């Protein structure tokens, strides 16, 4: 099974998710948003599959520091893609692409069902 995990290496949730994948013996490729950025086509696909509200992390400091005008951009799926590409730390982490679909955020029970 090919698994690709997207996130930021120092994010606690990403660390927990990677540790879980390692413990399960699941091979994965890690895409570092800080070094590699976010691909607009990928972000658009994630929003199409999981919904804008799931993909946009409104609780993080990056979102909270935005101007009200920029926050309003997150309310439209098309402008949200541009905003998330500019600020990939606003993408809820981790994002996992696997043969069965996409997972966003780390929920061990959901991951066990989807990746086992």
Tally of domains: 1
Given the structure, what is the number of helices? 8
How large a portion of the residues is in β-strands, by DSSP E? Answer: 5-15%
Q: C-alpha Rg, in Å?
A: 14 Å
The outline comes out as globular
CATH-defined fold name: Glutaredoxin
**At CATH's second level, what is the architecture?**
3-Layer(aba) Sandwich
The N- to C-terminal Cα distance equals 10 Å
Mind explaining what this structure looks like?
With 116 residues, this protein is of the alpha+beta class. The protein is 53% helix and 14% strand. The chain has 8 helices and 4 strands; from the N terminus they run E-H-E-H-H-H-H-H-H-E-E-H. The chain has helices at residues 12-24, 33-36, 40-50, 52-55, 61-65, 68-73, 77-86, 108-115, and strands at residues 4-7, 29-32, 95-98, 101-104. The chain has a 4-stranded mixed beta sheet, with helices on both faces.
Summarize the structure.
This protein has 116 residues and is of the alpha+beta class.
Please give the structural blueprint.
Layout: E1 4-7, H1 12-24, E2 29-32, H2 33-36, H3 40-50, H4 52-55, H5 61-65, H6 68-73, H7 77-86, E3 95-98, E4 101-104, H8 108-115
Parallel strand pairs: 1-2
Antiparallel strand pairs: 1-3, 3-4
Tags for this model:
Glutaredoxin; alpha+beta; about 15% strand; about 120 residues; 4-stranded mixed beta sheet; single chain; about 55% helix; globular
